[in-house]
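Worked example 3. Consider a protein that binds magnesium ion.
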Amino acid sequence: MSVATQDTAISTGKITRALIYLVLLLFALFYLLPLFVMVANSLKPLDEITGGNMLALPQTWTIEPWLAAWSTAQIGVEPTGLRPYFINSILMVVPAVAISTILGAINGYILTKWRFKGDNILFGLMLFSCFIPFQIVLIPMATVLGKIGLAGSIPGLILVHVVYGVGFTTLYYRNYYAAVPSELVRAAMIDGAGFFRIFWRILLPLSGPITVVSVIWQFTNVWNDFLFGASFGGTSQPMTVALNNLVQSSTGVKEYNVHFAGAILAALPTLIVYIVAGRYFVRGLMAGSVKG
Amino acid sequence: MGFLDITNVTKSYGNVEVLHKVDVEVQEGEFLVLVGPSGCGKSTLLNMIAGLEDITSGDISINGRVVSGVHPSKRNIAMVFQSYALYPNMTVGQNMTFGLEMHGVPKPEREKALADVSKLLQIEQLLDRKPGQLSGGQRQRVAMGRALVRDPDVFLFDEPLSNLDAKLRVDMRTEIKKLHEQLKTTVVYVTHDQIEALTLSTRIAVMNGGYIQQLGTPREIYDTPANIFVATFMGSPAMNIVPAKIKVDNGVVFAELTDAEGQPKLLRTVQSNLAAWDGREILLGIRPEAITDPDGADRKSTHLERLDNRITVTEPAGSDTFVTMTLGGRDVIGRMRADADAAAGQMFEFAINMEKAVAFDPQTEDRIRPD
Ligand SMILES: Nc1ncnc2c1ncn2[C@@H]1O[C@H](COP(=O)(O)OP(=O)(O)O)[C@@H](O)[C@H]1O
Ligand SMILES: [Mg+2]
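Given these inputs, the predicted complex is written out as structure tokens:
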């Protein structure tokens, strides 16, 4: 009797499992389909796209569209390809992510371990900044950037993204550090460590997982931003704006294969960040849970 | 002037005063335990000694120096926290020498101190591990080691054993006592566990509601509690508190209390100044071990009173049997020998050691002191 029940339990388990895998597989295919279309079409000559099936694999394989998108395609009026804009984006995103993450970490540290009168109000205001739509600040921001002489430059864009990002990064680090016992800080104070030493030697080494979260979030947002880039980029526009100019250019034939290649180039860095950092993220979480 | 002086210290958070004019003088080499229920202000007082909390008013001085405004790291104290507060990213060795490193002690000296202390605590084999890889007892040792390497003037402990299981707690208690006897460093130790307080301390400060209720040696605290709070907080099972009426007959002072049937019973007291309470109610405090079976009574006592009463419950506890009866309308627990012939529902002859009984004023709940 008991054996029979066990049997049924195992076989239902198997059936459910197979069903779950099937559904998951379908979802995965569904999500991968657009990527497949993009990759496949970016490796075809243009006439294969205009002539026929978007879903087919290339008949003649070519990397010409990629080279064109990277270095020769017409962006706006100049035939520069996406390369200079890609470099702009890198020059913008790396400092913006680094600065906003470091500021967020220090803010979180102060807001949890060096509490002061009105700290919760200050944190509330910083949280509020996360909910301000970009459009509202465009004009005031332009005025400020103009006044401090950073309009139309990469440092200007960095500043805008840091200001916008620091609310989020502060939120992440504050909540993370709130779970770190204050007794650690007290012990370090008695041991003779000062403000920055405690941060550097005690808190920061514990911050792996939340730093990965913060970096992924900030990188994705700053890299993918279009509005600030288009508004304040001036002559140093980021990748997203360039991609738009490439795709929207009204002169000549629409080179869809080049567009696909350009779009993948624009998405690649965030994809890489997810794949690389995501793994560390999971690892960090596991380490934390084992540590207890 | 003691080694650690706490003079008239108060602490307020906003306009709530949580410590009221605390005065304690600790001599060099003493083991002072602050004991009291949760929330009574023990940790607050300890943190003020450490410099982790500001003093609202009053003074604290350590080794002849007033420390108000002195940074925690410059008070020459070391603290062991309840959660151990080991730095998770550092190895045990790094944890223990971090304080020395921050104080600019050269590496060879740090290594030497680490070697000495880890040998003393028998944690040499753990030095390269991270705290996350240690058991609770090992973490506790490392936390003590971190305090010991500093060779401070005063050790501060905040409930260091309360995260350990019962068996380990008893072992570590003995170990801490041994360490203190060996090192003779001044200790202030916070706990809510009265057994820890009684076993470890050279003196105890019993706290409640932000007041020090009594400061004294474990024996003083146990035998002559200052009030009903101290009497019932210290000791387990708690001291029995029984309403009684004082009757003076021919110069002999009796306490009259009612037995299980509501009949009055007379117990002769040793405290002659209770005669002033003739005809009035007092509260009589009798520890469970002063209520025994006649054969288990303290033979040296000069005032053993016999009392027949009905047993309500017996609780055999291996070495002893605890017996509950009704006296003065309250449950009263006595401690019999394990093989005493006591059974629930039966009449039993109890021996009460009135030498150990104490009397309390029912209004103020303070002890009525003998002259
Ligand atoms: N930061 C604080 N703000 C307000 N009240 C506090 C603060 N810290 C402690 N208290 C209050 O002070 C009292 C004593 O606390 P504490 O010293 O931690 O008690 P114990 O260690 O004896 O359990 C408690 O009533 C607690 O609520
Ligand atoms: Mg406490």
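Take a moment to read the result before moving on. Chain B has two domains: 4-233, 240-360. The two ends of chain B are 29 Å apart (CA to CA).
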